[in-house]
Amino acid sequence: MTDLATAQQALVAALVAGGELPEGFDPAAVLATKTALRRKRAGEVAARWPFLAASYGNDWPRLFAAWAESRPPQGSLRDGWDFARSMGTALPPLAREELDAREREYTYDGTAPPTPRPRSLWSRLRRR
């Protein structure tokens, strides 16, 4: 890997995964970019998980950003799922209902992307 590629990889890790800031980059500019990226990510998760985000009100962007600080993005569906699961018993009731609904519809082990659960024969017959 070239020096440029190594520096770029380190910069991306610093921006989205809590990595160390590589030499030669302006810390204030990187901090501003990190903040903007986490805010954008929180908005994307809120669009995919509206009740989760609404359950935390104005605290949502701050709480999600703190949680996401050292976690690389996995996509809004997985990020929301992982955040909700990480809250455990502190998850608000409306967010718990949303998580429970997702877990009825999809299977997700926390590592591989979620996949739709097969519907029962009864469900398939009722839809015809």
Automatic annotation (TrEMBL):
**Which InterPro entries does the entry link to?**
SCO6045-like_C (IPR058711)
Q: Where is this region: Disordered?
A: 94-128
Kindly give the Pfam families that the UniProt entry links to this protein.
SCO6045_C
Boundaries of each SCO6045-like C-terminal domain copy?
Answer: 5-87
Positions with biased composition (Low complexity) = 118-128
The signal peptide, as residue positions, is: none
Q: Where is the composition biased (Basic and acidic residues)?
A: 95-107
Protein name in the entry? SCO6045-like C-terminal domain-containing protein
Tell me which species this is from. Answer: Dactylosporangium matsuzakiense
The major lineage groups are:
Bacteria, Bacillati, Actinomycetota, Actinomycetes, Micromonosporales
